[in-house]
């Protein structure tokens, strides 16, 4: 960014005590609903960061599918880069950013695969084209050309013609059980407000952080 580039002027104030829920995941659900009400194009989009067994960090955008059982639910190919990372190091961090609301939420926690029955139920509700794609895509592997991928899609369309598409064994859900959640709320002059929740056992505690 050029040194003379304009800086964004934030409009918001600080969070009042009545605006924070006693449970940070309920608070996250509230902000997700408000982001949807504000007509954000993908209010449930989050940057998901993982680390491999060599300590190399990578991140990508994924879609949150639910806040359940104390954590964040999302789905992926188990053999993708993120899947391999989570197999080697089952910890992750997620970040939501809603520019229209001038808010950010960061979540950290341990990740585990969801039960197969849960993944089966979710997969059954996906569009058929997405179901076929889950079989055809060797996610994160090298692809010589687009035609190769399209040929794999066509092969699986023929294989599953006139029948329901079953969930591939290499595809399913994850749950990131949150143990740290931070809410960032924009304020004027970069005097932002940060509220950090930490969970020890079954108890959440929270406090402010310097911006």
- Output the CATH class name: Mainly Beta
Specify Rg, calculated over alpha carbons.
20 Å
Number of helices: 5
Strand/helix succession: HEEEEHEEHHHEEE
CATH superfamily: Electron Transport, Fmn-binding Protein, Chain A
What is the helical fraction, as a range of percent? 25-40%
Quaternary assembly? single chain
Largest sheet: 9 strands, antiparallel
Mean pLDDT, all residues: 92
Ranges where pLDDT stays below 50 over 5 or more residues in a row are none
Note down, in words, how this protein is organized.
By secondary structure, the chain is an alpha+beta fold. The chain has a single domain (17-127, 169-209), classed as Electron Transport, Fmn-binding Protein, Chain A (Pnp Oxidase, Chain A). Strands 1, 2, 3, 4, 5, 6, 7, 8 and 9 form a 9-stranded antiparallel sheet that branches. Helix 4 crosses helix 5 (146-159). The mean pLDDT is 92. 26% of the residues lie in helices and 35% in strands. The protein has helices at 24-37, 81-88, 116-124, 128-136, 146-159, and strands at residues 45-51, 57-63, 66-68, 71-77, 91-98, 103-113, 171-185, 193-200, 203-209. The two termini are 22 Å apart.
Features:
9-stranded antiparallel sheet, 211 residues, alpha+beta, elongated, Pnp Oxidase, Chain A
Describe the secondary structure blueprint for this structure:
Blueprint: H1 24-37, E1 45-51, E2 57-63, E3 66-68, E4 71-77, H2 81-88, E5 91-98, E6 103-113, H3 116-124, H4 128-136, H5 146-159, E7 171-185, E8 193-200, E9 203-209
Helix pairs in contact: 4-5
């Amino acid at each position: 960014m050029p040194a003379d580039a304009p800086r964004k002027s934030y409009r918001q104030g600080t969070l009042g005590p009545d605006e924070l829920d006693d449970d940070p995941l309920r608070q996250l659900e509230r902000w997700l609903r408000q982001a949807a009400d504000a007509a954000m194009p993908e209010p449930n989009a989050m940057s998901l960061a993982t680390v491999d067994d060599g300590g190399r960090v990578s991140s990508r955008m994924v879609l949150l599918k639910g806040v359940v059982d104390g954590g964040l639910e999302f789905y992926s190919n188990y053999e993708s880069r993120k899947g391999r990372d989570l197999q080697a190091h089952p910890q992750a961090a997620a970040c939501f950013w809603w520019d229209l609301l001038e808010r950010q939420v960061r979540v950290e926690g341990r990740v585990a695969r969801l039960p197969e029955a849960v993944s089966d139920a979710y997969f059954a509700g996906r569009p058929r084209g997405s179901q076929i794609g889950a079989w055809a895509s060797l996610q994160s592997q090298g692809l010589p050309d687009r035609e190769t991928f399209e040929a794999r899609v066509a092969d699986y369309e023929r294989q599953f013609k006139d029948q329901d598409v079953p969930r591939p064994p290499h595809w399913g859900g994850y749950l990131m059980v949150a143990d740290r959640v931070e809410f960032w709320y924009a304020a004027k002059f970069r005097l932002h407000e940060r509220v950090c929740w930490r969970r020890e056992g079954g108890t959440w505690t929270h406090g402010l952080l310097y911006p």
